C-alpha cells in the first residue's frame, strides 16, 4: 500500500446500484476513484444498506478530510490517499494526520448499531 497526494477532479453521487458517492482522484498522470459504497437502497431493491448512518457519515467525513463545508467545493481540493493498484482504502487531510477509512469506520458504526457493514 502506498500513500500519495491526489487532486479531487470531481465529486458525484450515482444510483446505478443504489445510492453511492464517488470522489474521482488525479495523481498527476494517473487517477483512481474513491467510494462506491452502498449508502442507501430504496425498499424493493435487491441490495439493502445496513443499519447505521453510512450515507451521512461518508459525506461528512469526505467534506471534513478535504476541509470544505459543501459537496460542490470538493473539486480541486488536494488530499492524501492510502491506496494500492486496485483500491483507494482511505483518504487523508493534506497536512493534518486525519484519515477516513470507510471499511473501518462503517464496521464500527455497524457494531455500535447491531448491524453489519
Kindly describe this structure.
This protein is α+β, with helices and mostly antiparallel strands. It has one domain (2-113). It has two helices and six strands. It has helices spanning 54-66, 102-113; strands at residues 2-14, 20-26, 31-35, 78-83, 88-92, 99-100. It has a six-stranded antiparallel β-sheet. β4 and β5 form a beta hairpin. It starts with a strand and ends with a helix. The mean pLDDT is 88.
Question: TL;DR of this structure?
Answer:
The chain is α+β, with helices and mostly antiparallel strands and 117 residues long.
* Sheet with the most strands, sense and barrel status: 6 strands, antiparallel
The low-pLDDT segments are none
**Which assembly state applies to the chains in this document?**
single chain
Q: H/E order of the elements?
A: EEEHEEEH
| Average residue-wise pLDDT | 88
- Placed side by side, the strands forming the largest sheet appear as 3-2-1-4-5-6
Classify the secondary structure makeup into a structural class: alpha+beta
Q: Count the beta strands.
A: 6
Please state the CA-atom Rg, rounded to the nearest Å: 14 Å
Helix segment tally: 2
Beginning-to-end CA distance, first to last residue: 23 Å
Query: How would you sum up the global shape?
Result: globular
Query: Percent of residues in helical segments?
Result: 10-25%
Amino acid at each position: 500500500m502506498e500513500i500519495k497526494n491526489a487532486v479531487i477532479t470531481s465529486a458525484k453521487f450515482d444510483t446505478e446500484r443504489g445510492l453511492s458517492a464517488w470522489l474521482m482522484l488525479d495523481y498527476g498522470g494517473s487517477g483512481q476513484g474513491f467510494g462506491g459504497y452502498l449508502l442507501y437502497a430504496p425498499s424493493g431493491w435487491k441490495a439493502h444498506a445496513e443499519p447505521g448512518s453510512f450515507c451521512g457519515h461518508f459525506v461528512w467525513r469526505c467534506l471534513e478530510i478535504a476541509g470544505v463545508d459543501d459537496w460542490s467545493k470538493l473539486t480541486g481540493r488536494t488530499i492524501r490517499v492510502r491506496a494500492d493498484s486496485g483500491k483507494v482504502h482511505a483518504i487523508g487531510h493534506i497536512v493534518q494526520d486525519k484519515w477516513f477509512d470507510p471499511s473501518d469506520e462503517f464496521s464500527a458504526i455497524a457494531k455500535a448499531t447491531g448491524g453489519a457493514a
